[in-house]
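Subject: Sanity check before I submit

Could someone independently write out the structure tokens for this chain? I want to compare against mine line by line before I put it in a report. The sequence has 366 residues.
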Amino acid sequence: MSEISQETQAQSKSQAARRGAPRWLWECGHVALHEMAGLAVLGLIIASAFGWFWSNPRDFDSEGDDGPVNVAMPVDRADPALADFAHADLVQLAAIAPGAGQQSIPAPGAGGGVDIAAQERVPAWRRNAVAAPGTDERYRIAVIIDDLGLSPAAFNRIAALPAPLTLAIMSYAPEAPVLAQAAHAAGHEVLVHVPMEPEGDIDPGPHALTTEQTREAFEQQLAWDLDRFDGYVGINNHMGSRVTANAERMTWLFEELERRGLMFVDSRTTKETVAPMLAEHFGLPFAERDVFLDNEFGADAVEAQLKALESEARKYGYAVAIGHPHAGTIAALKAWLPTLADRGFALVPISDIAAHRDGITTLSLN
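---
Independent answer below. Compare away.
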């Protein structure tokens, strides 16, 4: 018997069985099937509703999200510490400074919602910044003068130089508040020059930050330094080769600077400094010294360093120098500063360098 004839015979038997069954039985079965189908559809609807209700709403907002993406940060200069940070282990960095860069959300105001005034508060480093001249395509140069405030006569000679210089006033200078006001009146920007522990047995001066201090003592001393006067954009280190190489102490320092909205300028008294790495980690406005002007005090030696400063600026677009209120430094700067604009350079305050590094325009800064 062929496969077709077997199939035909089976269909005939099925039809005969249907004809032989009572009509009322078939109608009852038909109704039961309809009822069962309706219950099945209702069950699916209920199950879907419960599935949506208990699901995580974020699952609907993260379609195609494969997790965090590590974006390589551009490295402006061939700084080994910064180059190492570009490939740093984020877990290790979080262990050093777990709260770095986190922005707290302001509490709702009396009228409900987010407190817009608190959210839009301008940080101190921008609020106290001196307006930079229009730079166009010129190379930026910032000149910081350290150790100010211990000799009023030396301060006056520095303040009389063309602005804007950046004047770093010793935190323990007797007339620090008055000098800061005088610096602003002359068009200069101001830093607090904070004494920090160096390598060796050199005394950094009173009220210094050290690696021997507990966190409480460190923070109390830092608060004393920062509360001496106001109107400054940030701090830089006086000496400090031991402190700036200590990740734990620098983390304590940067946490307070971040809280106060201040910038940090690394005098780079040691190649072991961790400041560039931690500044990137905290998102802290930052600049660093490229050239020391007066390791040798004579005006001729300072002039040679100013040429080196110009080379750095041409190479990278900007450069930062640190000098001191020595007679040779003042004489060299007095002759050099008026020539900058005609030779394609722009003298800027240190806040402009930090803003330039962070991609903030001079217009938004001031």
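---
OP: Matches mine. For the report I'm noting this point. The chain is about 45% helix and 15% strand.
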